[in-house]
Amino acid sequence: SSLSVPSSDTMMWRSASRNLTRIARMDMSSCCLLQQKVSSAPLKTFPSRNFHANKVHFSEEYLSTMRNIGISAHIDSGKTTLTERILFYTGRISAIHEVRGKDGVGAKMDSMDLEREKGITIQSAATFCRWKDHEINIIDTPGHVDFTIEVERALRVLDGAVLVLCAVGGVQSQTNTVDRQMKRYGVPRIAFINKLDRAGSNPWSVIKQIRDKLNLNAAALQVPIGLEDKIEGIVDLVEMKAARFVGDFGEKVEWFDIPASVMQQCKEKRQELIENVANVDEALSEKFLVDEEPTIEELKTAIRRATLSLQFVPVMMGTAFKNKGVQLLLDGVLQYLPNPTEVKNTALDISKGEEPFEVKISSKEPLLALAFKLQESPFGQLTYLRIYQGTFSKGDNILHVNANKKIKVPRIVRMHSNEMEDIDTAKAGEIVALFGIECATGDSFTDGSIKASMTSMHVPDAVMSLSIQPKQKTQLDKFSKALNRFTREDPTFRVGYDDETKQTIISGMGELHLQIYVERIKREYGVECEVGQPRVNYRESITKKADFDYQHKKQSGGQGQYGRVIGYVEPTDSVMDEPEFENMMIGNVISPSWMAAIEKGYKEQALHGPLTEHPVTGCRFVMVDGASHAVDSSELAFKIAAKNAFRQAVEKAGPVILEPIMKVEISVPDEFQGVCLTLINKRKGVVEDSVAQSGYAVITAAVPLANMFGFSTDLRSSTQGKGEYSMEYSEHKPVLPNIQEELVKDYREKKAAEAGK
After folding, report:
1. What pLDDT was estimated at residue 555?
2. Are 520 and 487 in contact (CB under 8 A)?
3. Which long-range contacts (CB under 8 A, 24 or more apart) does 28-31 make?
4. Which has fewest Cβ within 10 Å: 161, 200, 372, 424?
5. Is beta strand 189-194 parallel, antiparallel or unpaired with respect to 160-166?
6. pLDDT in tens, 479-536
7. Contact 325, 319 (CB under 8 A)
């Protein structure tokens, strides 16, 4: 629900401040809505008949002709352009519009005004189409690292993916991120090398990068006939025949014999394909070892087996912008990517202590669905659902597992970007959207006959923060509603409240991420905001072991307070590990309930480090002894003792400030390489790699996030606007000693100034 604000100006400010404080003081782990665990408290079980009085069972044959795929890549690799062609060739749209087209319409999947203005995808968009009697559900995802959560939650619910790579840029920084996400969720993928029409395109270099940088067993299924402006068609290495794409938009595929100019290359690449698949497929390897040529069907089946087992990545190619190769990619999606029944999905059985069990993708099983994305619409909250088991219809009652609440389904729609198509029934394997359902991203739904929840997805930590407030205090109500909505929709967008400065703090994945939300608050809610300087999310840690022996004793008449804790703190294996607690005491010198209070006190104090009050990570608090009093000891006494013990121990354990380090990838023309290296050095960056690619230098460096503000402007001005860069979070590392001194000094001066007010 939105935050309520009284009409009085004074009360308006106080009420809004209290509400924002309440948002901020939530435990940050609970702010990550996707990571919340379902309560193990007993759930009400509603009989199935109460939910599906007229339940319809479907033939399971439809599942074998269904594909749920995502299209993911580094920014500007042509994902949205590719999706536009797919929709055109499948008859879903009647005309092609470009991402930055002169007609001002924009691509179908970029429905937000900001997306069309900036020429980038900000939100993932869902659609569906049919190709050769198969139903394909598609989610087009952003390529910019700041919106990586959109890729994360899409891959969590999809069965397969198309990894798009630029034929010139190859494997870039966000390609690595997407690859890690696909591996995290075990998603089979096809690689599609796009933009063969660009000057300097080299698909064979890209395949080598896929093998070397992503460590994937990949081989080409196709060979282009010509490159750059001379591309004429594509050769299918499995069937050994060539295709050209004719018509105004390449809508007609004509097959012809392979030209003599590429025949030898095709034979070599086909042999390479067979060898790579044979290395991971037993049936094909038997034929390969005896020099027996596999049939076309045997080769297709072997490629499919290897792809579904995540041991092989088939590589297809083309140029979506020039309308070449897209229909063959669609054929590849049907041939090599899995249907919903061929993918293993795991859920948690709440009735058995969240014991994992394998989900059976079937409309005949009890309902189980996952809400993976929320979106505000003129008709209310739109909740995207992936249905894993069972069916439900409009008007049915279903159980919101996380809230343990029965809800009625008012409306079911299938999405086509920002357009909707009403349907009466949704069934296993499908991706649909519901209206009027209050829930959070990552919540599960059942028909009430089972107590189960789908497993959660990974949510990265925010790396940047800034203060924000509305210019007019009369707009606090709208401002609060906007923040409430955006935190529900995007788990990487966090809202906090600084008690000292009395400011609202928003945190996210980068400058662009936060800028987009500030702009959306203005456009969608009409609220102009004042934004402070970006703030880096530092952490604190320790470098050595330190003992503590602290006694908390207070006597003020009546029952006093007494608690003594003895032990040590030590670094964990990683500086970013969450604070750990270990009890190594022998016997029950301290009651178990008081031990829980000690752990709570330690973890509360760990949120405020001794140097600059940033959270402490990579630290283990070990209890070895202690003392209690029969009358004066209490949970409060031991909680206070633990806080003070931790504070004193950390000061002796070599505390350090950790800063986020970004992996930065910069692409500049060769003549600006020296200038680019100078810019990196000025920002205390470390160059990790530099590769020459067709007149461009691609430089990879590790740079502190605090030094990256304003880099975009400097890079453009130093390279005549020809330089491009992208960055993603890499790790936290200790700052240099002189930087730590400055940060501590600035913090103390700030505290002194506030104390003097």
Report:
1. 74
2. no
3. 28/494, 31/487, 31/491, 31/494
4. 424
5. parallel
6. 998 888 888 888 888 888 877 567 788 888 777 788 888 888 888 888 888 888 777 8
7. yes
